[in-house]
Amino acid sequence: MPSEKNKPSRPGNPSRRAWDFFGGGTIGALLAAGAGIALLYLKFGLGLIHASYDLPYAVRPIVQPRQAVMVYLDDDSHQILNQPYNEPWDRSLHARMLNRLTAEGAKAVVFDIVFSNPGPDPQADEALATAIRLNGKVVLAADYVPAGYGREGVEAKQIVPPFGPFIDAAAAIGSAEINADDDLIVRKHVPMSPDDQIDSLSWAAAKVIGAVVTKNDSDRYLPHWLNYYGPATTIPNVSFYRVVQTNTPDSLPAGFFSNKVVLVGARLLTKFSGERKDEYPTPHSRWARQYPFMPGAEIQATAFLNLLRGDWLNCLSANGELAMLIVCGALFGFSLARFRPLAATGVSLLLAALVCTLAYLSFAHLRIWFPWLLLIVEIFIALLWSVVFNSIQLYVQKKLLEQALSRFLSPKLVKKFAGSPDVLKRGASSQLLTFMFSDLAGFTTITEGMAPDELAKMMNNYFEIAVTGCIHRTDGTVVQYVGDAIYAFWNAPELQNDHAIRACRAALHFRDQVIARPDGKPLYTRIGLHTGMANVGNYGSATHVDYTALGENVNLSSRMEGLNKYLGTRVLITGETKKEIGDQLVTRPLGRFRLKGFKKSVEVLELVGTLESAEATRSLREAFARALKLFQEKKFAEAEAAFHKILETAPEDGPTKYFLKLIAELPEHPLPADWTGEVELKEK
Q1: What is the rounded distance in angstroms from the CA atom of residue 113 to the CA atom of residue 134?
Q2: How high is the pLDDT of residue 671?
Q3: In whole angstroms, what is the distance from residue 629 CA to residue 249 CA?
Q4: 645 burial level (CB within 10 Å; 0-12, 13-18, 19+)
Q5: How many other β-carbons are positioned within 10 Å of the β-carbon of residue 136?
Q6: What residues contact residue 379 under an 8 Å CB cut-off, 6+ apart?
Q7: Nearest-angstrom CA–CA distance, 336 and 329
Q8: Is 471 exposed, middle or buried (0-12, 13-18, 19+ CB in 10 A)?
Q9: Could you give the CA distance from residue 413 to residue 495 in angstroms, rounded to a whole number?
C-alpha cells in the first residue's frame, strides 16, 4: 500500500479541505444564487413566479365569506325574464332589484355592468336612476375602451362613464378594468384606474361602505395581491330572476340581503345579457374541473372583499426577494457542495420540504407569498452542482488512488480497493500471511561506479519485472522497496485461500526471470518465504500512513532471504509455508536451523520448482535427503562421503557445499552432547 505522502489528498489534508469548503462551495453558491436571480428578472422565470402564487391555493382550505352576495345575470335569468338577445336588459328590472335591496337594508350595491348610454325606454332609465338615488350606496362601473395609439405605438384608452343621470344618482363610480397577467390569471388588484383618474371598482365600493383600507393616499398606488377564497362560485350567489320575482317557488326569502354588500354582474356562461361577459382562469383553474373560469364580476367581488376584510395578500419587496434569493442560493450552493451525492439528495429533499412548508405557512397564516419555486430551483441547481462537483472529486480521487495503489497492488485488487472508504483508515488486525523478501545478490559491487541513469534504468526494469510480472501477477501486495530489496505479502488486503501457493509461484517466476545488467551479465535474486500470523493494517500518524504487517514472522521471512547467501540457494521457504502448499510444488528439505535472535529452530526447505521439475530433480533431492539424514544422525564420515558423491553430478549445489563446510569445521567447533541435528547460525 502507498504511504500517505504518495496517496491522493484526503479530507484530512488542509489544502483539500480548504478547496472543499471554499472552492466547490463558492462555485455552488454562485450558480444557485445566479440561477435564482436570472429567473427573477428574466421572462422565462415568470411561470415559476406565477406558480409560486398559485400552488398554495391547492392545499389551503376554501373560505366562504358571508359579507357579500353575487347577483348573476345568467342564462336562467335571460330565459325566464325573456330578455332580448345581445341588447341591454330592461333597466326597470334593475330598478326593481335595487328597490328590493334597499328595502332589505343591503349595505351597498356594486354594478359590474356599464350603463354607458341611455336605454330604449326613458321611463326605465328614470326608474333606475331613482332607485339608485334612493339606495344611496350604489357604485357603478366605468369602462375603458381603446382610443388609438400614442407616438410610441402604445395603445391609449379612455374612460367610458355611466349615463349622466346614473352618475348623478350613484354614490361612486369605479374602473371595471381588470389587469390580467400573460396567462390571463388576475393576481393583482390595483386600487386606481390605469390613468389614475378614478378608483378601481372594488376600491370605490370599499370607500362607500367606510372600510379602512389604506393608511394614506400613496398606498393606493401599491398593488394588493388578490386572495382568492376558492374556485368560481365560492362567494354566495343567486340568479337575477330570483331577486326580481316574488311569490314564486324560486323566490328568495325576505331579508336575504340584509346587511350584505351585493355585487351584480354577468355569470360565467351568460351569452345573451348584452352586457359584460368577461371570464378568467384563476389559480384554482389548475385543478378545478366544474368551474375552471371565474366571472370578472366575482373577481371584482374578491378584490372588494379583500379590502373589506383586510385579508389581501402581500409579497416581499423587490429588494427583499432579491436578498432572499441571494442569501438562500448562497446557503444552498455552499452547503450542498459539502455532501456526497446520496447525502446531498437527502438534504435537498429536506430543504425543499422546508421551503414548501414555510411558503404555505406564510401564505395561509401571514398572507405573504414569495417566489418560493425559485428557491426550489436554487436547491436543484445546488444539488446538481454538488453531484457534478463531488462526482468529479470522487473520480479524480479514485483515479489518483488507483494510480498510487497500482504501484503496490495488482490491477484486479486496485479496482476492488480503490473505492473502499476504509482503504486508508488507520488500524490493524491479526491475519495469517505469506511473506516474501527479495534481495539482489552482490548489489553493492554491481552498482559501484555505475552512472545514475544506468542505475535507474536497470532498477526500474528490475522492479517492473518483479512487481508487474511476478508479484502482481499472483495478486500479491507490495509493501515496501528498500534499496534493491522488495517486501511483499499475500492474503491481505484481499483474503486468498491459496496465498502460500500464490507467493511460491511468484517467487519461482521471479527466480526464472533473466534480468540483465548493463554489461549483459544476469542479475541474481535471492528470495525468502514464510507463512505466519502478523498484525496487518495502516500504521502511522494522521498525515503519514503506511500499509504494512508487523511481527516476528515478518522478520523470519527476511532471515530466510538472507539464509540463501549461506546455503547457495535462490529461494528458501519455511516448514510453515510447506504445510500450506503441501505437495503442489517441488521442495528440498535442508534441515532445521536455529537463527540468531529466534528461540526455536526453523525447518528450512529449498523451493525447487513446479511439479514438472520433480522427475528431473528427483535423484539430487533423494541423494541429498540421505546425506542430510546421516548428518543429523551424527554419522559425519558417511555424510561427508554422501555429500561428496552429490558433487560428482551436481558440482555447484550450494546446500551440499554448505554441509561439507560444516563437517570440515567440526574438529574446531565440536557439537554439544545434546545436539539434535539442528544447524545454528551465529550471524544474521
Answers
A1: 19
A2: 86
A3: 130
A4: middle
A5: 13
A6: 32, 332, 336, 348, 351, 352, 355
A7: 11
A8: buried
A9: 11
Q: Which is it for strands 545-550 and 525-540: parallel, antiparallel or unpaired?
A: antiparallel
Instruction: Measure the CA–CA gap between 369 and 361, rounded to whole angstroms.
Output: 9
Output phi, psi for 343, to 5 deg.
-65, -40
> What tens digit of pLDDT does each residue of 609-647 get?
999 999 999 999 999 999 999 999 999 999 999 999 999
CB 477 within 8 A of CB 549: no
Helix (H, G, I), strand (E, B) or coil at 165: helix
d(C-alpha 506, C-alpha 503), whole Å: 5
| Predicted pLDDT of residue 421 | 55
pLDDT above 70: residue 237: yes
CB-facing half-sphere around the CA of 340: CA atoms within 13 A: 6
Count each helix (H run) and each strand (E run) in the chain, helices first.
22, 22
Q: Rounded CA gap, 632 and 626, in Å?
A: 10
Beta strands in 483-585 (DSSP E): 485-490, 525-540, 545-550, 571-574
Segment 5-8 long-range contacts (CB within 8 Å, at least 24 positions apart): 5/544, 6/404, 6/407, 7/400, 7/401, 7/404, 7/424, 7/545, 8/396, 8/397, 8/400, 8/401, 8/404
| pLDDT single digits (tens) 582-594 | 999 999 999 999 9
> At a CB cut-off of 8 Å and minimum separation 6, what does 361 contact?
none
- CA dihedral sign, ordered 604, 606, 610, 614: negative
Kindly list the distances between the CA atom of residue 403 and the CA atoms of 6, 139, 398, 477, 493, in Å, as whole numbers in the listed order.
Answer: 10, 83, 8, 15, 17
Cβ atoms of residues 591 and 678 within 8 Å? yes
CB-based contacts of 441: which residues, under 8 Å, 6+ apart?
Answer: 523, 524, 525, 526, 565
Q: 385, 367, 55: which is closest to 47 by C-alpha?
A: 55
Q: What is the pTM of this model?
A: 0.68
Nearest residue to 425 via CA among 339, 535, 539, 550: 539
Mean pLDDT computed over every residue of the chain: 87
Largest alpha-carbon pair distance within the chain? 156
Q: How confident is the model at residue 99 (pLDDT cuts 50, 70, 90)?
A: very high
116 three-class SS = coil
Q: Within 13 A of 476's CA, how many CA atoms are on the CB side?
A: 32
Q: How far apart are the first and last CA of the chain?
A: 28
The answer to whether residues 508 and 609 touch, using CB atoms and an 8 Å cutoff, is yes
Cell numbers describing residue 562: 538472507
pLDDT at 7: 41
Digit-coded pLDDT (tens) for 22-81: 778 899 999 999 999 999 999 989 999 999 999 999 999 999 999 999 999 988 898 899
State the cell numbers at 451.
552512472
What does the DSSP assignment read for 563-604? HHHHHT-SEEEEHHHHHHHTTSSEEEEEEEEE-TT-SS-EEE
* CA angle at 199 for the pair 139 and 163, rounded to the nearest 5°: 45
CA distances from 588 to 392, 407, 583 (A): 55, 33, 11
**Residue 399 pairs with which residues in a beta bridge?**
none
Residue 362 gets which letter from DSSP?
I
Within 13 Å, how many C-alpha atoms sit on residue 269's CB side?
Answer: 9
- How far apart are alpha carbons 310 and 403 in whole angstroms? 69
d(CA 587, CA 575): 10
